[in-house]
Amino acid sequence: MNNDFTRYYLDIRRKQKRETLLWSLGLVVLYLGAGTLAEFNLYTVWISLPHFFDYLAQIIPVLHWQVLFADVHTKGSLHYWGYRLPIQLPLIWDTVQMALAATMISVLAASVLAFLAAANTNTPAALRLIIRTSVAFLRTMPELAWAVMFVMAFGIGMFPGFLTLALHTVGSLTKMFYEALESASNQPVRGLRACGAGTLQCMRFGLWPQVKPIFLSYSFMRLEINFRLSTILGLVGAGGIGQELMTNIKLDQYDQISMTLLLIILVVAALDALSGTLRKWVVEGKK
User: Fold this and answer.
1) Mean pLDDT, residues 72-97 taken together
2) Distance between CA 142 and CA 61 in Å, rounded?
């Protein structure tokens, strides 16, 4: 008996090692092929890496300790560096609002579509195919392409940015949500059905408690992504702090580029901390 088990164990181990080796070789070949097509070269990276920091060095503000707290007209002071804060702070707030509004409405829409698109919710196959194809189109279209179309239709402002973020977010979140639903355990659903529960009750009490933390994590992550995306959408006039950033880049106002980037980094860090706290509060309960 021990000899049979040992032989079986060794056969399994040999099979695992063989599959690991084959997969590793396949990935190496794929990486080399993709790297060749992408013109990836470690030597080029090594000799060009110092130049990567040249632009960062240009946007670092020049501050002087002697006049650090002087008025707004004195070069080298904090007031001189942040003289556009009265303009930038409202734009940051507008960007947060745009990202928040787009994320909230997209989460609601994606949650409904995900339950309809999941394979384990008894949705008709034709409806599943239509929903999956539609959301694939929404997330495949580049955000800048959506933004250009909406700016041409509605003009420059926040509304084109909101529509762009909302459509792309629905496409992305629906896919992640229905994959989470399909990965959930089916045992609670079978138990509820055995007790006479209907389809909606099975979804509410069998699937939703399992996927709620995942939905929340994806939603908070997408909020951060939408805020960062909104800075890029300013390139085509979709409003928010992105428009301010692109204007400063075009005018070579390096000190204001650094101030705008600093504000964006601070807001992203605050959103990350807030999302972690909210997720813990919702999932684990307030303590």
Assistant:
1) 82
2) 34
**161 Ramachandran zone, left/alpha/beta (phi>0; psi -120 to 50):** alpha
CB-CB contact of 211 with 180 (8 Å): yes
Distances (CA, A) of 85 to 15, 47, 68, 92, 265: 63, 38, 17, 10, 15
Fold of 84-284: MetI-like fold (1.10.3720)
**What pLDDT, on a 0 to 100 scale, did the predictor assign at position 256?**
85
Question: Can you tell me the distance from the alpha carbon of 55 to that of 186, in angstroms, rounded to the nearest whole number?
Answer: 54
Higher pLDDT residue, 116 or 275? 116
Question: What CA–CA distance (Å, rounded) separates 28 from 166?
Answer: 38
- Beta-carbon contacts of residue 121 (< 8 Å; ≥ 6 apart): 115, 181, 199, 203, 207
Q: What are phi and psi of 200, to 5 degrees?
A: -65, -40
Give the DSSP letter of residue 118: -
Residue pair 110/101 in contact by the 8 Å Cβ criterion? no
DSSP states along 211-233: HHHHHHHHHHHHHHHHHHHHHHH
Q: Are 139 and 171 in contact, with CB atoms under 8 Å apart? A: yes
Residue 77: closest CA among 214, 251, 210, 255: 255
> What whole-number percentage of the chain has pLDDT above 70?
95
Which of 151, 148, 117 lies closest to 135, judged by CA?
A: 117
